[in-house]
Amino acid sequence: MRGYKKAFRRAFPYTIPVLTGYLFIGIAFGVMYAEKGYSALWAVLMSVMVYAGSGQYLAVNFFVPGVSFLHVAFMTLMVNIRHVFYGISLLDKFHRMGKKRWYMIFSLTDETYSLLCTVKIPKDVEEEKFLFAIALLDQCYWIIGSAIGGILKNVLPFNAEGIEFAMTALFVVIFIEQWLEKKNRIPAAIGVGAAFLCLQIFGSANFVFPTMILCVLVLFASRKRISEEVDICR
């Protein structure tokens, strides 16, 4: 444990924005989970073992009869397929982290990825310990939020209609921030264009699958152009 105390202390200030976000959307997840009749303990367990953000929100709707395992697996894969691209860009960093790389792969979320790519490692802290501290702190925030939400819903019953929009709102904010800050907006434009096209063709009830598939295909096809744009922006 040598050096980890300092790593967590130095990493905490960088994770405060994630703390404020994850607490609230974690609470929303806990409330949604409790509405299905599950205790706060199950919400916490899912956040510990699954920890998939939007995938967990989606999974709440799978706890009903008639939903096949293949449908669950495919939807989860498509919702979180962006993590494949995240992981590829961090292979070198994770490879140097030994056994901790398995947890780093597991704990890679949108917000954690953003921090891992942008924070400057303090000179008095080992890189692998600092990055590990960021990832673990972020997951702890999500777990705490899930526990609070599950407990609140069971102790203080209230109408939680519309609370599932918390995750959608978070992604909207992330999208707007990236659009304003990034010079290379091709991936964002592809996502918006694909969603609009599939919405017109397949309708609001069936456009999610085709949109995700189209996004992946177009991103793969245009990856060379996107890479060139990134180099130019740098």
From TrEMBL:
<feature type="transmembrane region" description="Helical">
    <location>
        <begin position="188"/>
        <end position="221"/>
    </location>
</feature>
<keyword id="KW-0472">Membrane</keyword>
<dbReference type="InterPro" id="IPR011606">
    <property type="entry name" value="Brnchd-chn_aa_trnsp_permease"/>
</dbReference>
<comment type="similarity">
    <text>Belongs to the AzlC family.</text>
</comment>
<dbReference type="Pfam" id="PF03591">
    <property type="entry name" value="AzlC"/>
</dbReference>
<keyword id="KW-1003">Cell membrane</keyword>
<keyword id="KW-0812">Transmembrane</keyword>
<feature type="transmembrane region" description="Helical">
    <location>
        <begin position="158"/>
        <end position="176"/>
    </location>
</feature>
<keyword id="KW-1133">Transmembrane helix</keyword>
<protein>
    <submittedName>
        <fullName>AzlC family ABC transporter permease</fullName>
    </submittedName>
</protein>
<dbReference type="GO" id="GO:1903785">
    <property type="term" value="P:L-valine transmembrane transport"/>
</dbReference>
<feature type="transmembrane region" description="Helical">
    <location>
        <begin position="41"/>
        <end position="63"/>
    </location>
</feature>
<dbReference type="GO" id="GO:0005886">
    <property type="term" value="C:plasma membrane"/>
</dbReference>
<feature type="transmembrane region" description="Helical">
    <location>
        <begin position="12"/>
        <end position="34"/>
    </location>
</feature>
<feature type="transmembrane region" description="Helical">
    <location>
        <begin position="130"/>
        <end position="152"/>
    </location>
</feature>
<feature type="transmembrane region" description="Helical">
    <location>
        <begin position="69"/>
        <end position="91"/>
    </location>
</feature>
<keyword id="KW-0813">Transport</keyword>
